[in-house]
């Protein structure tokens, strides 16, 4: 059996890997509704938070070709809400800006900032995300050699193409890359099918001695409950930073 090629780079998911997304999603809904109450009361009245959720589902169903583009879908939902409630369509830009500011207010998992810095000091890191987080606005862009989003690339995870594009940007072969993420299908299965090594970050059951990996056809290359555990593993297994 031939030895594995050296590990030369990391691709990294963002939402629910560096920070939990559900609190962000809930806050976005509250802030956007409050914005409409001030700037377009008719829209706020016709589209309370549950109605805006249903509208977002409508947008996903109506525009399947844009399913990879979270920003486009959000903006389109705002436009439709304004139109259907008789609001001023010119408010769409400002409403989206209010959403985007809140989108990038993240509460990191406690271990994530320090662990990310350690990992980035070891290997080049490329963010690969289906979301629309802004690394510069969040203040962590210095840790990333590259960032690839589904919106910019045209398809999202678990499509192999976005993983292969990340490898090309990093200048390494898929087998030399470790993809780190929380989502079993989008992150781990997608990266596995694309030929990358995989690290499943299973924060949800971090207290379990044996994490509940749900698939039988393959196993992740690595499984850790925290990003710190991955940083520790890299420190133990990489002799030096690749040049």
Name its key features.
six-stranded parallel β-sheet; Four Helix Bundle (Hemerythrin (Met), subunit A); Rossmann fold; alpha/beta; single chain; 243 residues
Written overview of the protein:
- This protein has 243 residues and is an alpha/beta fold.
- It folds into 2 domains: 9-19 and 108-236, 3-Layer(aba) Sandwich (Rossmann fold), CATH 3.40.50.1000; 22-104, Up-down Bundle (Four Helix Bundle (Hemerythrin (Met), subunit A)).
- Helix content is 48%, strand content 11%.
- It is built from 11 helices and 6 strands.
- The chain has a 6-stranded parallel β-sheet with strand order 3-2-1-4-5-6, with helices on both faces.
- α10 links the parallel β4 (177-181) and β5.
- α3 packs across α4 (70-84).
Task: Detail the topology: elements first, then pairings.
Blueprint: E1 9-12, H1 22-39, H2 41-46, H3 49-62, H4 70-84, H5 92-103, H6 112-122, E2 125-129, H7 135-138, E3 146-149, H8 150-153, H9 160-170, E4 177-181, H10 184-193, E5 197-201, E6 222-224, H11 227-237
Parallel strand pairs: 1-2, 1-4, 2-3, 4-5, 5-6
Secondary structure: number of strands: 6
Q: What is the architecture of the largest domain at the second tier of CATH? A: 3-Layer(aba) Sandwich
CATH topology of the largest domain: Rossmann fold
- Counting helices, strands and paired strands, the structural category is alpha/beta
Strand ordering within the main sheet: 3-2-1-4-5-6
State the name of the first-level CATH class of the largest domain.
Alpha Beta
The DSSP helix count reads 11
Strand content: 5-15%
Radius of gyration: 20 Å
Assembly of the depicted chains: single chain
- What is the first-to-last residue Cα distance? 27 Å
Largest sheet: 6 strands, parallel
Order of helices and strands: EHHHHHHEHEHHEHEEH
Task: Calculate the mean pLDDT score and round it.
Answer: 93
Overall tally of structural domains: 2
Helix content: 40-55%
Give start-end ranges of low-pLDDT stretches.
none
Based on Cα principal axes, name the global outline: elongated
CATH superfamily assignment of the largest domain? Answer: HAD superfamily/HAD-like
